[in-house]
Structures are given as structure tokens and as C-alpha cells.
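Re: the 314-residue chain
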Amino acid sequence: MFPPETAHSISLNSLKVLSYFNFKETNILDSKKLEIMNLSFSNRLGLAAGMDKNADYVDSLASLGFGFLELGTLTPRAQSGNLKPRLFRLREKKSLINSMGFNNKGIQYAIEKINSSNTKAIIGLSIGKNFDTPLEKAVDDYLFCLDRAYPFCDYIAVNISSPNTKDLRKLEGKKYFSGLINSIKKKQEKLSKQFGYKPVVLKLSPDIHEGELENICKEVLDKTIDGIISSNTTAFHNYPLNGGLSGQELFDISNKNLLSLRKFLGTSFPIIASGGVMSRDHFKKKLELGADLVQIYTGMIYKGPVLVKEILDP
């Protein structure tokens, strides 16, 4: 009935009202103890970044039963993102195309919201660069966000794979990747002395050629990055729309990426799987292919909070 962004806002605000009056945080436990990246997860299901960009709905989303929430992506300065319309439904395919462009209220706004929340769920913060920051200075934006996010969340997700910020995916290439993650690791080590060790994970594109992906994985292991999120949206689609494709049509593409990552990273390296999870069977498939944790987003758009219950109910 409503344009996608309007519906998104209405739905989240409705959830916030309902959770205030009726809900207590649901703690759905996995049958096994989940110690991953030195964090204790109550279950393997998380919310992907993008649903709650500014940490405005932390407690209400946690009340649905998620084991972890990833918020953002946040940039150093607030920005409005790309021009509208920038979110498109593909109803028959149960998919979306978005070209949002990291619209957010800035990292400081989000950490204040997180600091005032009451959730017991694991909180991850996804960080990125401002649209007008040159690639040569992108590392400064990531370090700025990492420095501010670190004391207030449980892990940090470094988003270098959105197709909706011009040239951002070049940060996955040889010219920038090694220097970027080396700087991030140094900052993480410094911050850990004051606040304790918190994992840093990288969110990667599903569109990386396998040879390049293998090289990235070698760097990830060499630099002791803590985990990988597989994957962001794909820019390789046949729709006459700009932006990244998510939802059911991303499922097989992201699964292929997941298999390659597990092959290159070994059996014990932490991988968070995202991309096209629309059902309990999809969730289980991600785990069978080697994921340690699984995130949903577009599935929530099409099925609502019932998807969380469907996946997690015994």
C-alpha cells in the first residue's frame, strides 16, 4: 500500500509501540552453547545491517528473539544518501533492489541510542565511509567510526562492499585492501587495551571473482581478521534499476560465495552468512554450507517478524 521506505518506517515504528506495551525480550536459546569470536550468542540468527540504520529500534527488534543485531551502516558524518526513489520491490521474486547510499544520522547519534538501550542481545555496528571521502582517505573514516563505536558494541562490521557508494568496492582490491585492514587491526589492538578485545569482521561482496576472493582470504588470515560476513547485495542483475539485489534471488549467489569462503578460510574461521534467507529451510541451508551465524533482512520485509519465530521455534 505504501512506497517501500514509507512502509519500512511505519513498520518499525509500529513494532516499537507494540514492544513498549506488550513485549519483553524473547531469549530463544540454541540447543548448543554458542561461543563464536569469543562472544556468547543465545542463538544463531541475527538481523543484518540496513534494517535499523541509526539504532532507533534496538530494544523492539531484540524483543523478537534475535541472537544478535547488526546496526548501521554508520558513517562519520550524517548523510542523506542517494536520490529517491532508491528502494524497489520485486514482489514476484521476493527480492529488493536498493541504492540507498549509506543514509544515516552519523556514528555519534547511533552510539548514543545504543548506550541508552536495554537489550541483552549481541550488538554489532556496521561502519563505512562518507560518500564524499576520497578512497585515498577512506581509512580515516573507518578508523574514526571504529574509535567511536568500539566502547559501545560487541563487534564491528567493516562494510567495504556496498554497491551504492561510488567506488566503495575498490577497497576490496589490491590497491587499498591490505593497507586498510592493517590500519584497522592496529586500531583494534590499541582500543582493546582500554576496552577489552572486540571482534572486527569484514562484509564482502558476492561479486568478487574466485581468484580475487582467495587472495582476500589469505590477507584476512594473515592479518587475523576475526570474521567475514558473506555477503552484501549483488550488483550483477538484469533489472533496469541501479542498486544491489537482495532477497530470494540472492540466495544461490551468496551460497556459492559462502562455499568458496569456507574452502579458502578453513573449517574453523567464523563466517556470518547473509543473503536471501526467506525461510527456516534457507536458514538451515546456510548452516549446512558452513555458516556459523546467519542474518536476515529482506525476508523480514516480505514475511515480517513471523520469520524469526519460524526459524527459531524448536
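The two ends are 34 Å apart (CA to CA).
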